[in-house]
Design goal:
The chain has one domain. Helix content is 78%, strand content 0%. It has twelve helices and no strands. Helix 3 runs antiparallel to helix 7.
Length: 293
Amino acid sequence: MNSKFLNYAALHFAIFSWGASGVTANLMSLPASGITVYRSAIAFVILLILNQFIKSAVKLSTREKIQLLLTGTILGIHWWCFFASIKYSTVSIALICIASGPIFIAILQPIFDKSRVKKSQLILGSTSIVALAIIFEFESQYALGIMIGLLAGLLDAFYTFFTSRTNQKINSSVMAQYQLFGAAAVIFGLYVFIEPDWQWLTLTTQADVWGVLFLGVVCSAMAMTLYVFAVKKLSAFTAILSLNLEAVYGIALALIIFGEKEYMSAGLYFGGAMLICCVIADGYFSREKPAKA
């Protein structure tokens, strides 16, 4: 079988599973806190065992460990916001909102790198604001879910930015292992004090049990491994553009499974299409140009 086909298959399987994570969460009775803790903890244990098996464990400095754990806390709060956005709105709205992540990156990068803002980023950023205004206008009854979803997109941008600043010599699975531990620890630590009755960790239905296993094994441990495998073989530009399909895959799956319950206004789909087009355009304009001979 063509190796290039396998690389693309691995990439899109990972992206499809991330899109399916929203649908899975919507089928569960478990709150966002419990879903996040179970997802992170299960994936952490799997990667811990995997890293020991393949002997990829490396000695990290204390600073690197702290950096990875802190980045993991951002990931954990991002996941909590994403699942909470679904609970307060719909799968479609949550997926469209987190698709704003790359736009936030385009805004944050000049600030952290102290570089000039490109004209294309100003235009795309302004267009994205219009797209979000359209979504708010047509789906104002889900205002809280939209705001939490946008916070998830912003946190996704911070997570991506800080992860890209991590020592790239660190094995990807080791990096993910520490980040997943940080993600589970921050939400667990917060909710032990917020809801000490532990009800937020109680699995009451079969959908909860199978859901946390699917999210932890397939959507986290397996998807992250396959994504890293594919990105190493394919171009970064291909990976960035393909990531925009997460919302498309997730929305299509939600419409198939939930039917009329997931139908949104034409304004939402128009605003969502505008936002995704902005993200794709930003990826195109940000691509690395080949050096002249």
